[in-house]
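Shipment paperwork, digital attachment
Item: protein structure file
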Amino acid sequence: MRSYYDLISHEGNRSLFTAIELSIASQVNRIPLHFHVEGLRGTGKTTVIRAARHILPPILRIKNCCYNCRPEAPHCPEHKGMSPEDIIRLGTELVPRPFLEISHSAKIGTVVGSIDLGKIIDSRHSVAALLPGTVPRAHRGIIFIDEINRLADTSPELVDVLLDMMGTKPGRVQIEETGLPTVELPVTVSIWAASNPDEDPGPLQQIRKQLSDRFDLRVQMERPLQSQTVRRILMQPRQEDILRTKSRELAVSDMKKVVFPSDILDVLAAIYIDFEIESIRAVEALELSATLLAMRNGRKTVILDDVAEVVPLVFGHRLDPVTIERIQQYVKRLALQNGWEADNTDSLGNPVAAERGKEKNSWLKRLWQSACKKFSNGNGSPASSGKNREQGEGQGLEGPSTRPAAAEMVAPPKQAIPLEQLPSDQLVSVDSEP
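Attachment content:
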């Protein structure tokens, strides 16, 4: 298995790395974040996902609890209701965060749970007991389902389990066996799924739209487009070198420390209404993903750029490409209009302006200084012509000759240069003749 941090990130798979890291951060913060990656076979979807199991932060659980009970809040049939003193006597242990898979041959009993036959046939102490399935054992961790479109086509009973579990956050699973009382367990599990939409039975959205909508993010995996990228992939360390490399955990912060401004919440509400979004889960996923992205980037406040970046991931399986582009451009325009007011702070609360903000503030400052210098009447303030003064105060520097309707439009002789790249002495120019 290749190390996650040794895998090559390129333009075709970068969104998958983002989705994985956002989902891990969300899971550590006790909120499941489900994603589904689609792409051609051989593009490395499964390789990247399975490599991510080695960067999962561990969990602290009650010792030997197969349900991964939190010591401060036990939930399983064996430990629920126990006092803190009893938990202390049992002890706790630090174990790897669960990463389990559901295959196409899985049965409902192996996924949900069934009767523990081993305890029933024990001649010394026969007892009817439950054997937890994949879902209860994955509590506080990850379940990976490869080729989920095939599973949705051939195993509708398993899909019903996923729908029930992914319908709320945290989810729930119900274990039913004849002769035993029904057991309902809360589960905080993130579902990672992959599929090849160009192969039978087709895209998940067409097979089971209800299940497709349960995924917070949809990632489109593409093949690398640059020959240099392929060369770097071929030069990756060999298996024996990777086995000697110690895995690193993903550093995760506390999501509760990230502020989601109310005015950006208004933007999300406007997107839901104005673009006629069908599922409320979409804007909930938008809020969660933008918060996680801000946290990953070391900021304490969500900005509109975070929202714009996750729009394609959140709406990729819910809307058509044209509408997604319209939403993203809408958010980006708002970000440009209000960029200088964004609270760009690092994890310590220190102001750290983004590069685009620095560039914008820089050329705006230079533009103002240059204007004051060239239009100055000697005391540092912009000069007004006698004609402008006769027009009266309140019209500013704008005269009839500067109004678009009266101006003669002439095409520029050469390609325009962005303002940020212009020298200071060229930001403002005046006619030499009166």
